[in-house]
Write a structure and sequence with these properties.
Helix content is 26%, strand content 17%. It is α+β, with helices and mostly antiparallel strands. The structure holds zinc ion (ZN) (2 copies). One zinc ion (ZN) binds next to loops.
Length: 141
């Protein structure tokens, strides 16, 4: 097994080393981890909040979420429980969006990180996603 470069994480779906992608500008600028192979994007809890702020401030998500929502062989091969948090190795749980049941958010219960498949960021309203994640932690608390 090859070594993951310092500061990089591997895609929970296909183990590809994820590349940093810039989002937004100015005070809301940040980098998220993006998988060039399947288009998945990993957000740390802080990053998700910042991305939502950047989107609210008018940043285009097109440049970030350029993948088309598609069913690659990775997506059909892997089932819930097969994906692990790239930070702490916790098994990710899937949360379906009630209004858009085709959108499944993978959430880490340990660190609050979220994995989105290609196309999901555009698909989901930022409000819905943030509320889903917050609601989950409220219920657990
Ligand atoms: Zn991937
Ligand atoms: Zn985690």
């Amino acid at each position: 097994m090859d070594i993951t470069p310092k500061g990089k994480i591997r895609c929970p779906k296909d183990a590809t080393i994820m590349e940093k992608l810039g989002v937004g500008s100015g005070e809301h600028a940040l980098e998220v981890d993006h998988c060039a192979r399947c288009g998945a994007i990993w957000f740390d809890p802080y990053e998700l909040e910042q991305t939502i702020k950047a989107k609210d401030a008018g940043a285009s998500m097109e440049e970030l979420d350029f993948g088309k929502a598609k069913h690659s062989y990775e997506q059909t091969m892997y089932r819930s429980g097969d994906k692990h948090c790239p930070r702490d190795n916790t098994v990710l749980i899937e949360i379906p969006d009630p209004r858009q049941p085709h959108v499944m958010i993978d959430l880490c219960r340990t660190c609050g990180g979220v994995l989105l498949d290609a196309g999901e960021l555009k698909d989901l309203s930022e409000f819905t996603l943030a509320e889903r994640v917050k609601g989950f932690f409220r219920r657990k608390a």
